[in-house]
Write a structure and sequence with these properties.
Number of strands: 0
Low-confidence stretches: 223-228, 319-333
Helix content: over 70%
Radius of gyration: 21 Å
Strand content: under 5%
Order of helices and strands: HHHHHHHHHHHHH
Length: about 325
């Protein structure tokens, strides 16, 4: 059965760990700024480092609280996502913040990662076995198309975040992750849905902690501008986590193609605010409108998922009264 208190505790623990790491790193900023006074870009790297390490700490603590019983080597798609894919993403996003690393190298690494994620998650499953219903072409084209889809969404969101820096774009990804958590749970995959919650919590906590810290630095006239709120690392982790959970829910759960695609594409609705009519509005107005446009398709998916849950899953909860226990097991096909 779902344990809301455990889910809440994992989110709180993840948020606290992220905030502590970010604040500790920013607490060393005076030494860093004195050492790199003539190279402000290296000072900016401290912010990027705080972001990546804060997210890493939050995820580690949050998933430890959830006690997902992850094994090494991982035996299922969720384990490979949490133990292999997300750590590799963190490393790539950390490399992307190093001043001497060319941008094309960063993008090459991101594209390679995007293309490798579907085969990694499908590894050992029936889809890649000799008894699979897929033919040779499907075995190559389907993972490749999914990888290119991830790369495209990732690139468009990074471009949007560069045009509209701040919290709105990463927040839209967090909204999509919350929708994913609820949809996957209502489809019967409790662990898959629960694994999205610490990710959302640590991303939001890291964003807020970094925003407050950078504002304080700017008030002290230290060479930091609003653009230094590093959202690229946050977006990278969020988009990869979102895609991975939707991919698992689609191929190993009961999420439909349409629901998965709508949730994945929902953050891209933020591009509506880049139209000439909305672009020149006040930043807070643009951010609120963007989140509203993103929320509309997510709400539609949740309403439909709840209707399907009430029709198919809710009757299983009736029969033995309030003391009945229902085990929902999702087996990788």
């Amino acid at each position: 059965m779902p344990d809301p208190l455990l889910y809440l505790k994992s989110m709180v623990d993840a948020a606290i760990a992220s905030v502590i790491v970010v604040l500790v790193i920013f607490g060393l900023r005076q030494w860093a700024l004195r050492k790199w006074r003539k190279t402000p870009s290296q000072g900016v790297f401290i912010i990027h480092l705080a972001c990546i390490l804060g997210i890493s700490a939050g995820l580690a603590v949050g998933y430890a609280t959830l006690s997902l019983e992850l094994a090494w080597p991982p035996t299922n798609a969720l384990g490979r996502l949490l133990i292999v894919v997300l750590p590799v993403t963190l490393v790539i996003e950390l490399i992307s913040g190093i001043p001497c690393v060319p941008r094309y190298v960063t993008w090459l690494l991101r594209i390679l990662l995007a293309l490798m994620i579907p085969p990694v998650l499908l590894y050992g499953s029936v889809y890649l076995s000799d008894s699979s219903d897929w033919n040779a072409i499907q075995t190559v084209v389907t993972p490749g198309a999914c990888g290119m889809l991830l790369a495209g969404v990732w690139g468009l969101l990074l471009r949007l975040a560069s045009r509209s820096p701040g919290l709105s774009i990463p927040s839209s990804v967090c909204l999509a992750l919350l929708c994913t958590a609820a949809t996957v749970m209502m489809a019967g995959y409790l662990k898959g849905g629960a694994s999205a919650l610490p990710l959302v919590s640590t991303l939001m906590a890291t964003m807020i902690a970094m925003l407050l810290a950078t504002r304080r630095l700017r008030k002290r006239r230290q060479d930091f501008t609003p653009s230094h709120l590093d959202s690229h690392g946050i977006l990278g982790i969020g988009v990869v986590g979102l895609f991975g959970l939707l991919f698992i829910g689609r191929f190993f759960g009961e999420i439909s193609n349409s629901d998965a695609l709508i949730i994945l594409f929902a953050p891209l609705f933020g591009w509506v605010t880049e139209t000439r009519l909305l672009r020149n509005q006040k930043p807070w107005v643009v951010a609120c409108l963007g989140l509203t446009f993103v929320s509309i398709p997510l709400v539609v998916v949740l309403v439909l998922a709840k209707r399907n849950f009430d029709r198919e899953m809710a009757p299983l909860l009736v029969g033995k009264g309030a003391a009945a226990e229902v085990s929902v097991v999702v087996v990788e096909r």
